[in-house]
Structures are given as structure tokens and as C-alpha cells.
Write a sequence for this structure.
């Protein structure tokens, strides 16, 4: 039994196919005016990586400040701006578009057997909206930023701060529409452009999870949009909607904001879960256990995700009865997520497991997301939430699910599909090292924060009681390690574009339509639309295909 | 299978063309309902005033959705989509109001 | 590799035989139609949720400040509101007839229907302008020298007082009328913005319709725009009773 499933063509004779989506047309305009979903995905990949590093640098500044108990690296007002911009950029400009706009855009048409997404021009518009929003966000940061936290809580954001709430709000508003159009495109494509024979239950689970996330994008994001509009009107005109002196209720903003922002966390995680389904199956050579359960649980997460938003508001002044209802519903929403973890675990059981880099990230995901998710249940119980909310426990909870979970899934996906997108393999050893470094760095950064939270350290504070320093020092040390872990992929992935081994069409011997075509793919994905006659994750079918195939070179 | 230009008749079989008479009837009904709702607002029905007003508005909206927007003649998917939209809208309003209406209930 | 997957429809030959208005990534014109229609509906869902936030705010504040909302709504002229509702309903009718004309390939009828819809849309906005300027004159625009005079002393506003004989509101409740007017302007303003966008697109469509773009069997644009227009009508169908008809019998 080999310890790797990587199967590459003979490197001495292999070549990248001359005709592919990268070589089809040349010149800047062919990229900037493209309708090709694959090129748009690459545009997004470059953009979100750029924003990730800005957000990451802000995180570095936060951790540096928190090395000492006093607010000595920067003024407390500046610290407020740093963590606010960190949150805004990471949530809206990295996490929300991460997997959908890059891997989703690139592969959903191929996975359903189509030539492109349903609305290619809307796809391009989506990217331009993202860029416009991003430029506005950077401009805002450069001119002083916003210090309300990424949550723009009223009446702070409407009546008490003098910072760039309006421009940041505008940036988020525009980014929201970018997200809406991506989700809309996916839903239409998945419903209307599946190849003959590609029934719903033959779709890869990656597609199901993006379908669920897209429903959330389409139905949830507009409510964020109107919340931002109301904040803008309140700030400029003083309409009174969130102003108690005029009879308004600041809590109304929070209802509208969290009505989106809670489903937003599922928008962020569901695509990552889709990646994990693909990776776990491929690297255990086994179909995903309980396909139907995983598919339906994705949709269940999306639906239930709309019913729980006020668990972010337990201490804010909602009624006790609302606390009770939302707490109960929050317990329910944890169930579908847990179902997935069980299904992946059972997929591994009696599988032929190998430990290539995507699988390492997937293992990291499963462990860290489970911890993050479980701590979410502690927070969903209103009794414990009263003590843990607004402390570092919350910070640790969401970083475990978003960074330990989602970011690891994103990296798993990038590594898994890198050979298909570029035609080249990344260097396996250094990438495995980077994955391990990331895992260690992550735990060192964020585990101490659970303890800090239970001990009572509040979040969003630049200074803290001296007894918390040692744990903060561990956390900052971990952040440095984590930074190295994230920097390495940028370096070796870029290196691999020129020097990586030629991957061939299916280096992982994976099922899925995208692996049956050349790497990098043709602009039209398939020479002819395939007719699908096999189930998802059908490794026997793949064996039969290989037997039929004439071994070709390059 | 070859492509061919669709004539209006074939187009009609795949894609029901609603007759103008339906539009006239529905349009007239909508105007009558508008008059009704104005009349109703001048009556003293207590708590039923807003119920009547909303009820008439919902009826008008349903007529526009079903006939002007062709949902009655559309696929199940379209009907499901419209339903999902209104369902989410009601969740937003309903669950938010659940907080506001219970605030004055005092302690347990 | 392509030996192992069967191909659809002997596709190579049929590949280039599609109508000029069918995009290349769609296999059939019906698929394109289906997909774009579905996409339009999804976009309308986002609009439902966008207005949803404003309706939520409305329901909360109307429940909290009912007397203020009643007297606020007495400041709106029911004549204009009813007229506007009739105008919009008629424009929905003309738009639906426009779609029918396109489907039946009657270019003249289509252009006429689009022009009527366009005109009715402009009439709607004209009436709204009249209403808004009245509000501006009376200082009932939130945030811009808002005045509660008409509510603490209704007799100072004889037009409205002679019809409704409202009782004076206590000062704090009178101040809450500003919330009513914020909702009035925000909701009708957002609605008007959607009308303006719709009218602009109608202008473009009239121009294209005269060139025959929509009467050759490719009616998708007209159909999908029709959906948008009817949606904007539905929003007004709810705004009218909620803002104008709160309680005209008091």
C-alpha cells in the first residue's frame, strides 16, 4: 500500500496543454473583460489574498499591542480602529468570498457539467463590485478608519463616533451586492445548467454546500444593506430610527444587522465544509458516508441559520422570552453541523487514508471546527453566555471556527485544486510543513484565549489586568508562528507556477467531472457536454475509466 | 435534435401566454379592491381595521403575483422561490416582533 | 478521455445552429430563458428582503407610537395616494399587455404599451413630487427643521383639522411623528428610487422595441422587466394602506 495517491504523468515528457483557459486570449483586457468563470476566479484569488494580508497585518498589530497590559503600542482609539478594520476586512473581504468566489466560481460549472455559470457578465460585475468596495475600504483605512467594531453597533456608530462610518458602510454595502450576485449566479447554474444525467443526488457535496450558502447570500445580505442605509440616514440626517431621544430603538439596528450576520457565518463555513467533503473522500478513497445526510444537513444549516440571530443579542436588552426562544433554536442549529463531522469521520473509517497536504488541512479543520462549534453551544446557552459574552471566549470561539475551520478549509481547497487550476503540483513536503506549522501556531494563538475569556478578559480592550499577560504572550507568540504558516503557501505556490511538477489531468485520482478534463482546463471546460451515468464519489467507475483510457503523454 | 425557430403557437404550448382578458379582469379587480380599502379605512372596526387593510393588500399582491407575474402558469420552482422569499420576509418580521411584543411582559 | 464520456445530441454539428440571441454557454434557447427568468425572480427575492427591513421598522414603531402614526398619516392626502395607487395598477396592466404584445410579436402594440407604462410611471413620480413638496413646506421632513406644531396644536393646521379634528398630542408623542415621517420618506423614497430606475430602463426598452428587438421571438428582457415592474407595484400596494390608511375614521 503506497503512502501517497499522487499519480503524475512522466515528468520528462509531460507538458502543460497548449490550449487552455489561460492561453486562450492574451492581454490585460482579455482578463479585465472576461466572461470566463475560471479567469474571474483567478482574479478573485489574487484580490482576496491581497485583502487577507492586510487583515492579517492588522491582526499582527493587535497581537503586538496585547503583548503588554498597558495600551502602549498605540492609543486606545487607534487600537479600536485596528480591530474594527481587521474584522471588517477579514469578514467581508476575505471570509465571505473566499471559497465561493475562487474555488466555487472556478469549479461549480465544471462540477455540474456546464460550460460556464448561468450569468457570466453578472459574475464579472460581482468582481468589479468587490474591487470597488475594496478600494473604498482601503481609502477609509488610509484616512483614519472606523472604530465601532465590525458590528457598527448603534447608537455608538450613529451618534458618538467621528470616524468614517459612512464610507466603511458604503464599502460593506457594495461588497454585499458582490456577494448577492455570486450567490444568485450559483443558484441559477445549479438548478438550470446541470448536464444530462447529473441529478441533484449525483452532484458533488461541494455543490450542495455552495447551493445552501448561496441561498443565505441571496436572502440575508439585503437585510444588511438596509441596516447600513438606515445607519447612514441616522448619521447624516438624524431621522431618529435608532435614537432613543426621538423614540427610536438602537436594538432595531442589531436585529437587522444580525439577521444577516448570523447567516453570514454559515455563508462563510458552508463552502469550506464542501471542500472538506471532497478532500476527505479523495484521500480516504471512499465515498462520503451518508451523502444524503450531508446534502440535507447543508440545506438545514441554511434554513435554521435564519432563526437564531438574536443569540448575538442576549445581553443587549431583548426580552427574556426572546432569549429563551433564540437559545432553544440555537441548540437546534448545531445539530446539522455535527452531523457532517460524524459523516466525515465515518468516511475515514476503513478508508485508505493518505496524508497529502489537503488532507492535513482537512484533519485540522475537523478537530478545530469541532472545538469551535462546541464552544458555540456553550455560548448558545443563555445562562453561560451572560458571563462569556464580550470576553475573549467569544473571540476564541469564532476564530476556531473561522480560522481553524474555514481558513484551513480554504487552504485545503486551494491545495487540492491547485493542480487543476494551474496544471502544476505544489511542492508536497514544504506544504505539509506549512500545514503543520499553521496548526501549531493556530492552537498556540487561540487556545489561551478561551482561558482568558473564562477568566474574564474583555474583548476589544487595548489594556488588561497584568495577571492576564502570560496568556496574551503565548497568544502573540502563536500568532507569529501562524504568520509564517500563512506566508509559506504564498511563496511556494507562486514558485510552483514556474517550477512545479506537471500535474496531468487527475493527480489525485479523484472522481468528479473537473478531474476528467485537462489541467488547466479549456475555456469551454468540456469539448462536449458530458452525459453523467455514475453516482458521486464512485471510485469503481474511476477504475473502469482508467482501464479504458489510452495512456497519453502530456 | 435540431434547432428551429419557434412560432408563437409552439411558444405558447411550452410557455403559456396569458390572454389580455385575464389582465383586464385582474386589473379591474385591483382597482375595485383599492376603492374598497379606502372605504374600509373610514369605517370603525377597531382592531379589524388594520387586519382588513392588510388582508386586502395581501389579496391584491396575490393577484398581481399569480396573474400579472404569471406565477399561476409557472413551474413549481418559481412558485417555491416566491414562497421562500415571503417565508424569509415573514421570519424577519415575525421573530423580530416576537422580541418587541414580549418586552413589556415584565419578569418571568 | 472523451471516449469514455458519451456526448450529447451529436453536439458538434448542432453547435453553431442556434439563434443569434442565444448565448454560447447555454445548450438551448429554452434553457437560457428558464435560467434568466429564474435569475430575475432571485433578484426580486433580494428586493423583498431589502424592503423587509423597512417594514420591520414600520411595524415596531407603529405598534409603539400608534397615536403619532395616526396623526402623521392624516397629514397625507388620501386623494393623491389613491390616485397614485390607481396609476400604478394601470401601469402594471399596460406592462402586462406589453409582455403579451411582445409574445404575439406585435411591435406597434408593444411600443404603445411601453410608452403608456412609461408615462404612467412619470405621472406617479409627478404626484409624489407634489406630495413631497407639501411635506417640505410644512416642515415635516425628519432632520430638516422638523416641526411638531401640527401635532401639539392641530387647530393650527386647518386643512387637516377640519377633516379629522385630531386631539393635541403630548409633546413626547408628538415628537414621535418624526419617526412616522422618516418611515414615510424612507419607504416611499426607496420605492420612488426603484420607479426611477424602472422608468429609465423603460426608456431604453422603448428605443429598442421600436427597432424590433423584442418582437422576433426573444421576449426575455421585456418579460423579466415586467416582473420587476410588477414587484415595484406590489411594494406600493402595501405602502398605500400602511402609510395612508392607518386610521381615517378618527
Amino acid at each position: 500500500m503506497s503512502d501517497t495517491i499522487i499519480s503524475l504523468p512522466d515528468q520528462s515528457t509531460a507538458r502543460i496543454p497548449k490550449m487552455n483557459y489561460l492561453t486562450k486570449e492574451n492581454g490585460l483586457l482579455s482578463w479585465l473583460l472576461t466572461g470566463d468563470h475560471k479567469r474571474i476566479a483567478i482574479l478573485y484569488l489574487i484580490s482576496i489574498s491581497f485583502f487577507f494580508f492586510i487583515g492579517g497585518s492588522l491582526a499582527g498589530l493587535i497581537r503586538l499591542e496585547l503583548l503588554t497590559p498597558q495600551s502602549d503600542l498605540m492609543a486606545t482609539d487607534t487600537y479600536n480602529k485596528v480591530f474594527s478594520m481587521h474584522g471588517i476586512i477579514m469578514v467581508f473581504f476575505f471570509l465571505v468570498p473566499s471559497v465561493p468566489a475562487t474555488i466555487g466560481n472556478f469549479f461549480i460549472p465544471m462540477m455540474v457539467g456546464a460550460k460556464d455559470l448561468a450569468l457570466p457578465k453578472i459574475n464579472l460585475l460581482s468582481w468589479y463590485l468587490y474591487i470597488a468596495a475594496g478600494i473604498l475600504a482601503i481609502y477609509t483605512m488610509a484616512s483614519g478608519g472606523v472604530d465601532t467594531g465590525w458590528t457598527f453597533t448603534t447608537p455608538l456608530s450613529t451618534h458618538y463616533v467621528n470616524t468614517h462610518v459612512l464610507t466603511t458602510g458604503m464599502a460593506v454595502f457594495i461588497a454585499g451586492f458582490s456577494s448577492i450576485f455570486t450567490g444568485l449566479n450559483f443558484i441559477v447554474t445549479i438548478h438550470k445548467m446541470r448536464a444530462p444525467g447529473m441529478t441533484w443526488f449525483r452532484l458533488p457535496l461541494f455543490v450542495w454546500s455552495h447551493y445552501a450558502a448561496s441561498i443565505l447570500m441571496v436572502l440575508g445580505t439585503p437585510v444588511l444593506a438596509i441596516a447600513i442605509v438606515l445607519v447612514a440616514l441616522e448619521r447624516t440626517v438624524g431621522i431618529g430610527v435608532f435614537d432613543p431621544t426621538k423614540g427610536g430603538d438602537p436594538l432595531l439596528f442589531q436585529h437587522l444587522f444580525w439577521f444577516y450576520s448570523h447567516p453570514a457565518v454559515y455563508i462563510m463555513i458552508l463552502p469550506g465544509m464542501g471542500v472538506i467533503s471532497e478532500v476527505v473522500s479523495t484521500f480516504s478513497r471512499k465515498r462520503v458516508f451518508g451523502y444524503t445526510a450531508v446534502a440535507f444537513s447543508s440545506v438545514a444549516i441554511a434554513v435554521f441559520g435564519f432563526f437564531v440571530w438574536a443569540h448575538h443579542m442576549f445581553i443587549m436588552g431583548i426580552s427574556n422570552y426572546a432569549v429563551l426562544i433564540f437559545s432553544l433554536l440555537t441548540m437546534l442549529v448545531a445539530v446539522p453541523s455535527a452531523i457532517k463531522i460524524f459523516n466525515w469521520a465515518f468516511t475515514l473509517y476503513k478508508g485508505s487514508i493518505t496524508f497529502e497536504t489537503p488532507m492535513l488541512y482537512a484533519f485540522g479543520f475537523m478537530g478545530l471546527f469541532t472545538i469551535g462549534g462546541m464552544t458555540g453551544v456553550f455560548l448558545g446557552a443563555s445562562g453561560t453566555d451572560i458571563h462569556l459574552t464580550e470576553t475573549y471566549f467569544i473571540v476564541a470561539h469564532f476564530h476556531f471556527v473561522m480560522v481553524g475551520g474555514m481558513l484551513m478549509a480554504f487552504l485545503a481547497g486551494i491545495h487540492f485544486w491547485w493542480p487543476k487550476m494551474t496544471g502544476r503540483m505544489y511542492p508536497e513536503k514544504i506544504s505539509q510543513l506549512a500545514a503543520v506549522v499553521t496548526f501549531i501556531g493556530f492552537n498556540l494563538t487561540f487556545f489561551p484565549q478561551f482561558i482568558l475569556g473564562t477568566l474574564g478578559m474583555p474583548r476589544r480592550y487595548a489594556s488588561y489586568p497584568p495577571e492576564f499577560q502570560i496568556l496574551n504572550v503565548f497568544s502573540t507568540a502563536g500568532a507569529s508562528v501562524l504568520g509564517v504558516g500563512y506566508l509559506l503557501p504564498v511563496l511556494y505556490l507562486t514558485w510552483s507556477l514556474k517550477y512545479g511538477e506537471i500535474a496531468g489531468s487527475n493527480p489525485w485520482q479523484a472522481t468528479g467531472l473537473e478531474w476528467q478534463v485537462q489541467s488547466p482546463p479549456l475555456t469551454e471546460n468540456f469539448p462536449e457536454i458530458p452525459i453523467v451515468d455514475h453516482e458521486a464519489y464512485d471510485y469503481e467507475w474511476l477504475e473502469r475509466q482508467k482501464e479504458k483510457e489510452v495512456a497519453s503523454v502530456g | 435534435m435540431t434547432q428551429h425557430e419557434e412560432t408563437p403557437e409552439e411558444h405558447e404550448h411550452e410557455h403559456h401566454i396569458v390572454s389580455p382578458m385575464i389582465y383586464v379582469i385582474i386589473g379591474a379587480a385591483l382597482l375595485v379592491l383599492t376603492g374598497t380599502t379606502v372605504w374600509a379605512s373610514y369605517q370603525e372596526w377597531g382592531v379589524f381595521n388594520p387586519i382588513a387593510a392588510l388582508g386586502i393588500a395581501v389579496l391584491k399582491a396575490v393577484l398581481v403575483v399569480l396573474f400579472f407575474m404569471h406565477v399561476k402558469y409557472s413551474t413549481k420552482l418559481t412558485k417555491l422561490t416566491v414562497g421562500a422569499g415571503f417565508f424569509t420576509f415573514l421570519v424577519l418580521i415575525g421573530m423580530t416582533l416576537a422580541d418587541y411584543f414580549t418586552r413589556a411582559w415584565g419578569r418571568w | 478521455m472523451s471516449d469514455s464520456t458519451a456526448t450529447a445530441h451529436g453536439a458538434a454539428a448542432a453547435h453553431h445552429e442556434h439563434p443569434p440571441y442565444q448565448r454560447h454557454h447555454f445548450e438551448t434557447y429554452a434553457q437560457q430563458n428558464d435560467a434568466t427568468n429564474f435569475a430575475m425572480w432571485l433578484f426580486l427575492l433580494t428586493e423583498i428582503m431589502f424592503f423587509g427591513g423597512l417594514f420591520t421598522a414600520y411595524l415596531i414603531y407603529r405598534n409603539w407610537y400608534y397615536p403619532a402614526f395616526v396623526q402623521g398619516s392624516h397629514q397625507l392626502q388620501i386623494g393623491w395616494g389613491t390616485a397614485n395607487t390607481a396609476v400604478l395598477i394601470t401601469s402594471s396592466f399596460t406592462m402586462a399587455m406589453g409582455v403579451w404584445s411582445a409574445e404575439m410579436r406585435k411591435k406597434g402594440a408593444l411600443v404603445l404599451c411601453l410608452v403608456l407604462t412609461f408615462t404612467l410611471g412619470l405621472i406617479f413620480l409627478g404626484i409624489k413630487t407634489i406630495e413631497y413638496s407639501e411635506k417640505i413646506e410644512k416642515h415635516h421632513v425628519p432632520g430638516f427643521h422638523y416641526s411638531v406644531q401640527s401635532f401639539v396644536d392641530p387647530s393650527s393646521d386647518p386643512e387637516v383639522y377640519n377633516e379629522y379634528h385630531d386631539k393635541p398630542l403630548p409633546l413626547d408623542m408628538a415628537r414621535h411623528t418624526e419617526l412616522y415621517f422618516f418611515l414615510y420618506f424612507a419607504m416611499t423614497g426607496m420605492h420612488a428610487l426603484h420607479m426611477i430606475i424602472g422608468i429609465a430602463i423603460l426608456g431604453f426598452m422603448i428605443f429598442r422595441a421600436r427597432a424590433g428587438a423584442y418582437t422576433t421571438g426573444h421576449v426575455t428582457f421585456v418579460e423579466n422587466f415586467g416582473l420587476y415592474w410588477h414587484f415595484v407595484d406590489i411594494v406600493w400596494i402595501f405602502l398605500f394602506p400602511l402609510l395612508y390608511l392607518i386610521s381615517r375614521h378618527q
User: Anything to note?
Assistant: Chain C has a mean pLDDT of 90. Chain C touches chain B through 58 residues (CB under 8 Å).
